[in-house]
From TrEMBL:
Residue ranges of the region described as Disordered: 182-210
Occurrences of domain Ribosome maturation factor RimM PRC barrel (ranges): 118-183
Keyword field: Chaperone, Cytoplasm, Ribosome biogenesis, rRNA processing
Species this protein is from: Microcella alkaliphila
Family indicated by similarity: Belongs to the RimM family.
Protein name per Swiss-Prot or TrEMBL: Ribosome maturation factor RimM
């Protein structure tokens, strides 16, 4: 199952970065923020002193800055973070929807059910056993990630959630989709090109803004 898959630059790049969470909204009056986690190991990623680079619009006062965690608490099963320099609700509200990235240690083992962008780009997309296209890139948005699938007719945006993408097989070079009605219904036949297409395998890097 796909459980908040982490995304990163390919190994060997100057920095391997993982997307581990999103700040959703302010919590209380003392600068706390509710978190949506994109990691199966929050105890490792969200320890006091952990530093995160921020994916925010260029117009945000937080653009180009890092955020340091002071404490992670749980309220009714919901993670809530406290951060250096975020002392009140107004400051917390200015960080709503920011995506948190970290640099992954080079000797660290990857998390279960987590994929890098470069692993997904180039995969053949199967629906009911039929090849309907190829993943050409991954788009990261605050609400969810989208796979851009190139078909014979057009590019299709597929939400990268377990209900729609229940299976990813990196070794086989395929992923399975169970799309809702209408997502692929107008397509006829397989998409052109193969899994070895060089352009389709060009790695993507995290966007600097939304």
């Amino acid at each position: 199952m796909i459980v908040g898959p982490a995304k990163a630059d390919p190994p060997g790049s100057p920095a391997t970065r993982l997307r581990v969470g999103r700040l959703t909204k302010a919590h209380g009056l003392k600068g706390a923020l509710k978190l949506e986690l994109f990691t199966d190991d929050p105890e490792r990623r969200f320890t006091p002193g952990a530093s995160f680079s921020l994916q925010v619009p260029t117009t945000s006062p937080w653009h180009g800055k890092n955020l340091t965690l002071t404490e992670l608490r749980w309220y009714n099963g919901q993670p809530v973070g406290f951060f250096e320099g975020v002392a009140d609700r107004t400051a917390a509200e200015s960080l709503a929807k920011a995506i948190l990235w970290i640099e992954q240690p080079t000797d660290e083992q990857p998390e279960d059910d987590a994929w890098y962008d470069f692993q997904l780009v180039g995969l053949r997309v199967l629906r009911d056993g039929d090849d309907v296209g190829e993943v050409i890139r991954v788009e990261h948005f605050p609400a969810q990630d989208l796979l851009v699938v190139r078909t014979a007719e057009r590019d299709v945006l597929v939400p990268f959630v377990s209900a729609i993408v229940p299976s990813v097989d990196i070794e086989a070079g395929t992923l399975v989709v169970t799309p809702p009605d209408g997502l692929f219904d107008d397509l006829d036949g397989p998409a052109p090109g193969g899994a070895g297409d060089t352009a389709a395998r060009t790695p993507t890097t995290p966007p600097s803004e939304q």
